[in-house]
Amino acid sequence: MLEKTLSRRTLLKGMTAGVGVMALAGCAAPVAPAAPQGQAAAPAAQALTLVLWSSFTGKNGEAETEVVRRFNESHSDIQIDYQFQGSYEETAQKVTAALQAGTAPDISLLSDVWWFKFYLNRALAPLDDLLEAEQVDLADYQDSLINEGVRQGVHYWIPFARSTPLFYYNKEKWAAAGLPDRGPKTWDEFMEWAPTLVEMEGSEMKTAAFSHPDGASYIAWLFQPVTWQWGGKYSDPDFTMHMTDELTVAAGQFYKDTVHTYKWARPTKDMGADFIGGLTAAAMMSTGSMGGIKANAQFEFGTAFLPEKDNFGCCTGGAGLAILARTPAEKQPAAMTYVAFASSPEIQSFWAQNTGYMPVRKSVLDLPEMQAYFEEFPQFKTAVEQLPLTQPQDSARVFVPNGDQIIGKGLERITVQSEEVATVFAEVQATLESEAQPVVEALRAIEG
Amino acid sequence: MTTKGNRVSPAERREWWLFLLLVGPNLALFAIFTYWPLVYNGYLSFVKWDMLAPVKIWVGLENYRFLFTQAEFRLIMLNTLIFTIASVVLTGSIGLAMALLLNQALRGRDAVRSIVFSPVMLSGAAIGIVWIYIFDPRYGLLDMLLGFVGLDSPNWLLDTAWALPAVIIVHVWKTVGYAVVIYIAGLQAIPRELYEAVVVDGGGAWARFLHVTLPGLSPVIFFLILTTVLASFQAFDIIKVMTNGGPVNATTTLVFYLYEQGFVAFNAGRAGVASIVLFVLMFMFTLVQMRYEERNVHYA
Amino acid sequence: MTTSSPEVLRETTQELQRPAATSITWVGHRHGLVGRIAAYVGLVLCVLLIGLPVYWMITGAFKTPQEVYAIPPTWIPLQPTLANFPKAWNSAPFERYYLNSLIVTIFGSGFEVFFAVTSAYAFAFLRFPGKSFVFLLLLAALMVPAQVTILPNYLTVARFGWINTYQGIIIPGASVAYGAFLLRQYYRTLPREIMDAAHVDGASHLRILLSVVTPLSKPAIVSFALLSIVAKWNEFLWPLIVTNTKDMRVLPIGIYWLMVEEGTIDWGVVMAGTLFVVLPVLIVFLYAQRYIVDGIAAGAVKG
User: Fold this and answer.
1) B189 touching A, CB under 8 A?
2) Residue extent(s) of CATH 3.40.190.10 domains in chain A
3) B-contacting chains (≥3 CB pairs under 8 Å)
4) For labelling alongside A262, which of A242, A442, C53, C84 has CA 20 to 30 A away?
5) Residue B286: which of C1, C142, C281 has the nearest Cβ?
6) Residue in C3, C18, C67, C261 to test binding to B, most B beta-carbons within 10 Å
């Protein structure tokens, strides 16, 4: 049933073959960005080695390894030492710990919920001078994405692997249930569809219509747009919390009901594996899961905009690259060379096609290879079309320390433990408020 | 007895230097990596620090107040208590049953003893991974075995009601061999004349168990309770690998919370408080054990 | 009476090898047929209860991706495959993990055994001022579990610049209290006459330690060394915290990351990986049983 595991090596081989085909299809080898100016380039024989920490596994990990390989191949004077550090959380933990120890990397991937903590502790290098020296065309970045990494007009966090939630569905199960080949326009519509998608095995639900991840798999990220669709939100930008607002609670009640009242959804530990294994007919997942699903699913799958309730709502997410403030000044331009390379249109085109992450550059969309890819794989086009409709995330999740996990554990209590929504959200709100306090103070100290 | 003052003989002085040479390095390491951390934990428990900021903010008893008034921490203490009591009771009783069996002259007994003891030697991380596979409610071994007796497998690791029992099962499975071995040692130490005396008095098997075996084992049982309690307090790798403390907080014990606060959430202050609570608990139990042992060692 | 932990552990290791002696049991002198059958059923139950998960790990490593997910699961791999082993081996730098585990175990246990032998000697045979106070200090260390110290120790090791180094993994756990007590207790059982004779011969303490006490207490030292080796090999929490690159991970951390990275998609590969971790210990265990028997048989007195 699950002939989907490729060893890393076969995967790599397969991928490089795919890359070859792309090159034939008219994609020239990636153009190396201009060498840093005004910087006495190190002698080629003595390449500058920079350490990069990152978080991708499986298909995405292979793709990032390939990005680094291409960089190292095209830059004789800079070599990137790529080191996998675990999940976004674990990477951030290792960076924190390493800053203590003075063994921090030069460049690190930091997720949407983590970069801010390092900014607050002045651990990130301001990038504007470096961007300018590297002649990076900031106007070509998707505005919403690049602007999320700006504080007081200074860039700290460059988008690299940015994603949005997306609605995935299993076309075979859709057809078997006699549903039209599209995602549900609204949650009300999905409420009608869902019972027909459930498959029982005795008294056990074998296939669920929909699934909820756990806190560690970012349920707080995926639920965030749902609160918006209901007209609620986690918080305001000024850290006023709205977890106990009527509409936020109503959205939480809906999540709870899907599992405990309607009984067509269930909590799971690994949504990707469940979807690939046919254990859930549909799921909200990151666009960044698309590469893995495409490579492993034995069935046709479709993607759609998130369903609506009173509004449409969708948030951005994913991770960007930052240069650590402790990176020696002479290394920082080289670090920027890599950051610019990784977010260049050519690499973003390759990266997006292999992973499902959003191309962070506007010009990528016009590249003929991207157009061809849209033709070939319309599921990805849906994701890109949804991107302009997204909004930045609530401060409660991304700026409050551990906010994502605080909300996530609360949601688990609802979906897994079937606790009272209002009670749980009230507790979550209280925790968020007390945890936000130091951030508010720190912000005042840093930004005035 | 120590010789006080400056009336130290040259021989003693020589031995003193030799002592420094022999014990010094060991003690120095203890000073740096065991005693100092205790002091430093005490300090950390009074500050608020995210392990990144250059300054640690003195907050007095705030961290203690926070933990002791928080529902989450009460749940964590409850989890620790359940984990500990269940481990002690299960390891103690199953271990005793196995030891009584394996102390008899049976063919293949030694091989079975080795098998029973082997999980004690295996990596908790590796074992935890194997058990995730076994616990899988769809294709796991346990699901099939439960199916034989007509039961449905719970969703062990995803269900807040079952996750803690699941990690307890694995912990007991891994540690029961240790108890068996200690019980057997205890059983062998019971003089056989005592049994014969009961037989002469016309006592049956049950009487022998009640009047000879159990009293004879009581010091061993006491020792085992203490070691099992201490081992339960420290159980980490199985939980980290199998559930990562979840779902929600269902398998977060004190040690896991300490790790999480220190190295995931980076609340050095709260980790400090958790360290101190853990230390005080373990200290009390160890004291009881020491005191008990001391008595018996001198007695022997 | 076996009450103290060191003694129990010594007995423990011996106990495992002791031939099936006729012992009087609480069940009775002679078993009836029913009793014997019940006892053997019990033995089988013990084997199943403890052995089955290990059996499942081993057979899982030989199952194909299809079979590993079969419902119901298969007892014996229907199409046994060796493919999982190279797959697991290639999905992580296992040769490096082995090297790291070996280094950490050899040096970690080496320090522990060395410190245990020397400290125990000092406490058993030397007379010096403040001995009982120092003894108490060591006793206190026994009451501090490693878990309590991880956070301050991380900071200390960071200050030393030892994060992600061998010394960072090894040194904080190199000191030993338990082993020192265990050996001290054993030393005290050594025949006094041998020691006195050595002293009369004018042998120095170091000489006595090396050529009299250590050979005499070989069984106890071996027992402690083995326990220490297994503990170091399996150590998880501290290496997890103190390492941050692939090339510094030890086996238990490596297998944990293998599961995290490869996910639970192919259990066959993951089971093969766990075997890499567990196999050396199982082999040592089998070998060590015999070794300790030899050590006891050869007899400390004769040595």
Assistant:
1) no
2) 8-29+45-163+317-376, 165-314+393-437
3) A, C
4) A242
5) C142
6) C3
Span B58-71, pLDDT tens digits: 999 999 999 999 88
Residue C104, pLDDT above cutoff 80: yes
- Return the residue in C17, C62, C98, C143 with the most chain B beta carbons within 10 A, the one to mutate for interface testing: C143
To the nearest whole Å, the CA of B155 is away from the closest chain A CA by 10
**Secondary structure string (H, E, C) spanning chain C:** CCCCHHHHHHHHHHHHHCCCCCCCCCCCCCCCHHHHHHHHHHHHHHHHHHHHHHHHHHHHCCCCHHHHCCCCCCCCCCCCCCCHHHHHHHHCCHHHHHHHHHHHHHHHHHHHHHHHHHHHHHHHHCCCCCHHHHHHHHHHHHCCCHHHHHHHHHHHHHHCCCCCCHHHHHHHHCCCCHHHHHHHHHHHCCCHHHHHHHHHCCCCHHHHHHHHHHHHCHHHHHHHHHHHHHHHHHCCHHHHHHCCCHHHCCHHHHHHHHHHHHCCCCHHHHHHHHHHHHHHHHHHHHHHHHHHHHHHHHCCCCC
Name the CATH architecture for the domain at A165-314+393-437: 3-Layer(aba) Sandwich (3.40)
A41 has a pLDDT exceeding 60: no
C-alpha distance from B36 to closest chain A C-alpha (Å): 18
Give the Cα-Cα-Cα angle C244, C250, C252 (nearest 5 degrees). Answer: 105
CB contact under 8 A, C50 and B187: no
Question: Nearest CA of chain C to the CA of A91: how many Å?
Answer: 9
Tens-place pLDDT, residues B211-243 = 888 888 888 888 888 888 988 998 999 999 999
Neighbours of chain A (3+ CB pairs under 8 A): B, C
Is residue C131 within 8 Å of B2, Cβ to Cβ? Answer: yes
Amino acid present at A406: I
CATH architecture, domain defined by C84-302: Orthogonal Bundle (1.10)
Chain A: closest CA distance from residue B247 (Å):
7
What's the pLDDT score for residue B8?
A: 65
Q: Do B248 and A412 touch (CB under 8 A)?
A: yes
Contact A215 B246 (CB under 8 A): yes
Whether residues A273 and C66 touch (CB distance < 8 A) is answered with no
Residue of chain C whose alpha carbon sits nearest to that of B288: C143
Please tell me the distance from the alpha carbon of residue A358 to that of residue A361, in angstroms, as a whole number. 9
CATH topology of domain B67-296: MetI-like fold (1.10.3720)
Token pair recorded at residue C301? 């007195």
Is A118 touching B (CB cutoff 8 A)? yes
Would you tell me which CATH number, out of the four given (3.40.190.10, 2.60.40.10, 3.20.20.150, 3.50.90.10), belongs to the domain A8-29+45-163+317-376? Answer: 3.40.190.10
In angstroms, the first-to-last Cα distance of chain A is 58
Residue C30 has a pLDDT of 54
Q: Is the pLDDT of residue B72 over 90?
A: no
Mean pLDDT of C154-164: 89
Nearest chain B residue (CA) to C112: B26
Using CB atoms, pick whichever of B48, B71, B264 lies closest to residue A93: B264
Among C69, C76, C148, C284, pick the best mutation site for testing chain B contact (most B Cβ within 10 A): C148
Q: What is the ipTM of this complex?
A: 0.87
Residue A198: DSSP 8-state = -
Q: Where are the domains of chain C?
A: 6-52, 84-302
Q: List the one residue out of C25, C26, C39 whose CA is nearest residue B107.
A: C39
Residue of A nearest to C71 (CA): A1
Closest residue in A to B243 (Cα–Cα)? A269
Average pLDDT over residues B5-25: 78
C105-133 tens-digit pLDDT = 999 999 999 999 999 999 888 887 788 88
